[in-house]
Specification:
elongated, five-stranded mixed barrel, about 130 residues, OB fold (Dihydrolipoamide Acetyltransferase, E2P), alpha+beta
């Protein structure tokens, strides 16, 4: 009959909606976001050149702007990055007046990944292995 939905139809709609959501989140988080377009969650990837380094992280610049990336390693280990090095950083923007990007994973041009901290439980666990 037309217009009548069954329990199976409702489940199909829910699964389809969930599938679309997962694809949207994963595809949105895997691409690189220009620094000026970073917003509060979700986790995202930014890419640029290291312009300044200090004990708590570094300033990353791209053609759209710059942002401080908090990347302090545990046990006061020194972060193995260099000035003018191009890197990709997986993380998220912190709320508040200052624009600070919390870096979870830094990917160097050599392919080496520096894991700063484990991602907070957004969908980070899904895409961390796909960070390229």
């Amino acid at each position: 009959m037309l217009g009548k939905s069954t329990e199976g139809d409702g489940m199909k709609r829910i699964l389809l909606s969930l599938g679309v959501l997962v694809v949207a989140v994963v595809s949105g988080c895997v691409s690189t976001t220009p620094i000026k377009n970073i917003g509060l969650p979700p986790v995202t990837t930014i890419e640029g050149t290291i312009a300044q380094i200090n004990e708590n992280g570094f300033t990353l610049t791209d053609n759209s702007g710059s942002i401080f990336v908090r990347a302090k390693l545990p046990d006061n280990k020194k972060l193995d990055v260099s000035l003018n090095e191009k890197v990709k950083v997986y993380g998220n923007l912190q709320g508040g007046q200052e624009r600070i990007f919390d870096g979870y994973v830094i990917r160097k041009p050599t392919g080496e990944q520096i894991i700063v901290t484990n991602p907070t439980p957004h969908f980070g666990f899904i895409i961390q292995s796909r960070f390229k």
